[in-house]
Amino acid sequence: MSSPNSESPRRARIQWGDLAVRWSFMLPTIVLLVLVLAYPIWYTIEISFSSFDMMTFGAGEFIGWENYSWVLKDYRFWESLWVTLVYLMWALPIQIILGFGIAYMINAQWRGRGVLRALFIIPMVVAPVVAGGIWRMLLDPIWGVVNWALGLVGLGPYDWFGDPNLAMATIVIIDTWRWTPFIVLIATAALLALPRDVFEAAKIDGAGRWATLWSVALPLLAPVIAATFVIRWLGAVKMFDIVLASTLGGPGKATSVINLFIYEEAFRSLNFAESSAMAMIVLVLTMLLTGVFLIGSRKLETMH
Amino acid sequence: MSTLDINNVRKAYGAVQVIHGITLNIQDGEFVALVGPSGCGKSTLLRMIAGLEEVTAGDIAIGDRDVTDLPPKARDIAMVFQNYALYPHMTVRDNMGFALKQRRTPKAEIQERVADAARILGLEDLLGRKPRALSGGQRQRVAMGRAIVRNPNVFLFDEPLSNLDAKLRVQMRSEIKELHQRLRTTTVYVTHDQIEAMTLADRVVVMNGGVIEQEGPPLELYDHPKSVFVAAFIGSPPMNFFEGSIENATVLRLDDGTKLQLPKPDPKGRERITMGVRPEHFELADAGWPATVSVVEATGSETQITARIAGKLIRVLVRGRTDVKAGENIHLTVNPDLIHMFDPAPIPDVALEEDH
Amino acid sequence: MTSIDTTAPKLRRRRRSYSHAARVGGAIFISLLFLFPVFWMVLTSFKSQVDIFTTPPKLFFDATWATYIEYFTRADIPDRLLNTVIVATGAGILSIVVGTLSGYALARIRLRGAATFGVLILMSRGVPPIALAVPMFLVARNMGLTDKHITLIFAYCTFLIPYVMWLMRSFFVSLPKELEESAMIDGCSRFGAFFKIIVPISMPGILSTLIFSIILAWEELLFALVLTSRDAVTIPVAIAGIAGDTETGANWAALTAVGTVTVIPVVIFALLVQKWLIQGLADGATKG
After folding, report:
1. ipTM for the predicted complex
2. Is pTM, for the whole model, over 0.90?
3. What range does the domain containing A266 cover?
């Protein structure tokens, strides 16, 4: 295993030059992200362990875990985490089931399929803040189209923004409207990629429609569903704009998701140190759960 | 045109060495084929010659110039890849002229040389097309055109015919041969197909596990393989092997007890050998090794017989036709000069692969 | 589509065409349902105040440009629109340049440790933006960088560069590596092979990714809210202001008009790159 003449100075110098060229592809990204991503995170950590100095408008003296213990004793923080959890538990399953269901439906062979799929992009690219605004208008208790339409079939009127449960439903509806198309598009591709012969074999074996769905289609789709879940999860934990533009966290704190709560603690109440501690807790929680989900989805992938 | 000297070249990825010190001197204008099963290191060696892989130790010289540490562009070589690697956004003309353009060759000269190459390869009508509008054979030709336009010191081919169907492969094979006879450019040609290597090359280098197993003119490898590996790899259908112990100098006792009379003793006097006989060297006779015919396949020009000697399947190739039938018992003899005797070694899988 | 049909042969044809029609009909209905909010926004933006607040809601009315004229001449909306254009294209272009280079590095160039960076950058998708917004605000304030386009452009790099890098990486991985090798043998340096061969071939992918990056930056709210106050305020901030202004009652005219102007260009661009976008989504889902 010896390489006697590989250490000659001539060769070493040339390799350095090439090494520089290679790294220069990566370097701008590293520099920029250290500047705008790594440094801010480090600074958040620093503030979260300090008292906030209003004079210098930065981290003051080191106070250890004090901010964290303050945050963990704050019932509003827990409430806000709970609100976020409720939102996630409703929104993600609904979106995934609806997304795959609609994909199955619009996948019928017909000429307009491509156009339909293209149109499905539109809700996805409506700015979340605009989405929140429009739905605020659509769901307006008095003048909104939705209540009027529900009234035609004898339902309502509903006070979408006044009732805590309905306000949560509002958030879930808006988010579902904006994101289901995304899942439909992924699911469409996944359905098209399913091997046809497996279904034909199931048919020959006499499996019914539901049996085929449960024992053939779902297991085959499981990895894609898991991956979709992870992507959606990463987006959903960042929920902020839609709430800000529609319910503003209300009524009371009924829809105050964690990001909105931290935002208000930081920029309305100017509790920068505590909100940094909260942000760090959320960051760690997100990372841990993301890790768990990723491992889970990898497992699913290897299982099938 | 130039010589190519590879001197004790090694390649390691971390602690794993894949090329174990290869030395190979290639004459000016020589056509050398590197052949071996996948993973034998032939492509890695070619890529080191091209400068696409770093050389861990040893050196490579093209002509008088040590190119070991030079980037690919400074080596004055041209390479034809298995997937052709045509630039999809350029026309055939631009593809062929790209290398010259990189060297700031005057426009008029580029045009002239591209036109020349196109004429040689029959690509004149395709110059304005993009690669995606070409058939597989045409793409292959453009890839070669791109190489010859350069008039490089060395041509490198990395399995250039593998993506073509069998018929086109044979046709392009003879075109490559013709091209080499015309241009006389030093060529290194990597293939896993021993027939390609045998038909094209002046010299065949059989590689195995990162070392050269044997090198020499094609027929020398066919006539005098030095090891079971080379014997199994060169020749189609592959050689038949019998491993056993020598008894009384001229009896080969197989492991199941069957005794075969050898027409000559082992010149090296070993106790245990692997004997090899090419299918085409068997002769049907009235006496000799008894065998039972299991399948007879006639193609008209020759007949391939699959038979069993003591439970072991062997292949026999006879010219023309024969009236031997399946189930029949036959006797086989071999000219003593055509019997090969090797140190016992496991028979590589290549011998079991489909033949071309 | 693999349709699973269990009906008896003689019935199959009729049953199938019925169920087919039902599926097509259902598909169209659902699409319309999903498009309705956008349709209603555009419709409302052309209503006068009297036509907006009616029961039942009006589908037919005298269309008017009044709201557009009011908001795009008198108010500060044009400024904000311009800010958004500057910031979104700036961030999009910076990210595409930087992210394409590193995406290529991850896909093709052997670099010790680069894969670790890649994974770290991928993990950054789990960082809540608020954890970045707080320190960015403090640092920007102390350095006098708030309310500047460039600050927002850099802030948007936090999510755009990882996005571009991973999308372009999977694109480059799908290209045969012999292309660059061939180019390098033909006389190119590493950079030459990248810029003369890889970039031109990848142009459709790069442009689509650029457009989608611009869209993401165009819609961003949190950083814009935190890092701008007057001069560099973007459209989403303005819309959040209009939507959240509950004191004066719902200003639906303004909301829908500004919303329409914000959304329409994005929709047009998105439809232009939809094919690539759907492909990217599918890849993103399967390759994580």
Report:
1. 0.86
2. no
3. 67-303
